[in-house]
Design a protein that fits this description.
Blueprint: H1 13-30, H2 44-47, H3 52-69, E1 98-101, H4 102-119, H5 121-128, E2 138-141
Parallel strand pairs: 1-2
Helix pairs in contact: 1-3, 4-5
């Protein structure tokens, strides 16, 4: 499971679809609807907030916004607690912002670059010309790779 801290605009089509599916699975875990993946390290940061389902809902809303921008059709009805404002809102997280370290963002940026180089040369070229930006749910703070990451 990879729930990217990076802005979904950085992902290629396969990455965006995979992140959507895995984030829906994370939502099911956080809602207690599945027993698989309950101890997955990617879920630690969502469980650490007061409203995990709201946080994953904001995260999923950001993915759905990016899908809409690409003319994909992600079913927003699957989001249990969608963000109150969506459709490309850069302040999607609002008061719910979660922190991510700049070390984590850098790690994910490098990881994404390797994946894109392997499967999507056009997206890898776009990646090389860009600077990493976080998903709108996340506020970047100084620090190392997150403790929950498994490099």
């Amino acid at each position: 499971m990879r729930i990217w801290s990076l802005h979904p605009a950085h992902l290629d089509g396969k990455g965006l679809v995979a992140c959507w599916r895995e984030s829906l699975l994370a939502q099911a875990v956080l809602d207690g609807r599945t027993r698989g993946y309950r101890s997955h390290p990617q879920l630690v940061r969502f469980r650490a907030v007061d409203e995990p389902l709201t946080a994953i809902g904001v995260y999923l809303s950001g993915l759905a916004d990016e899908a809409t921008a690409r003319d994909y059709r992600f079913d927003r009805d699957r989001i249990l607690e969608p963000a109150r404002s969506h459709e490309g809102d850069s302040d999607l997280g609002g008061d719910l912002l979660m922190s991510v370290t700049d070390g984590q963002l850098a790690f994910e940026w490098s990881h994404l670059g390797r994946k894109l180089a392997d499967r999507s040369p056009e997206d890898a070229e776009r990646w090389q010309a860009a600077d990493p930006a976080p998903h709108p749910l996340f506020d970047v703070v100084p620090g190392r790779i997150e403790d929950w990451e498994r490099p």
